[in-house]
Amino acid sequence: QVQLVESGGGLVQAGASLRLSCEASGRTFSSSTMGWFRQAPGKEREFVAAMTASGARTYKTDSVKGRFTISRDNAKNTVYLQMNSLKPEDTAVYYCAATRYGSTSNLPTVPISDIYWGQGTQVTVSS
């Protein structure tokens, strides 16, 4: 059974940093794109960042560029999201995602049914 388990969320003040981790189990994801989405209260889930299978390409939504860094360790089947200079508008539940079928450089366009999802971790940034 495939599982993606996020950790590292919490409550911080604006300007602080957090590092999210997502450890996958049940299969290897070395050939999959892995990334992060988030969902704020009352809003739709939105793409945050992703990294292709080889790590050759990363891409992020504009609002986190210069502040968030995605990385992965294929040997540990784990993807990370380093979040610096956090803002109150970053408050959301953050979900780990991994493609079921191969790697892509356009994770936001992959059908939801073709993605494995974690259960989410809450990030709250106070002003």
Tally of individual helices: 0
Low-confidence stretches: none
Give the end-to-end Cα distance, rounded to a whole number of Å: 40 Å
Order of helices and strands: EEEEEEEEEEE
Percentage of β-strand residues: over 45%
**Overall pLDDT confidence:** 96
How would you sum up the global shape? globular
Total beta strands: 11
Helix content: under 10%
The helix/strand class is mainly beta
Return Rg in Å. 13 Å
Biggest beta-sheet profile: 7 strands, mixed
Question: How is this structure best described in words?
Answer:
It is a single chain. By secondary structure, the chain is mainly β. The chain contains no helices and eleven strands. The protein has strands spanning 3-7, 10-13, 18-25, 34-39, 46-51, 58-60, 68-73, 78-83, 92-99, 115-117, 121-126. The strands form two sheets. Strands 2, 4, 5, 6, 9, 10 and 11 form a seven-stranded mixed β-sheet that branches. A four-stranded antiparallel β-sheet has the order 1-3-8-7, with no helix packed on it. Strand 4 (34-39) and strand 5 form a beta hairpin.
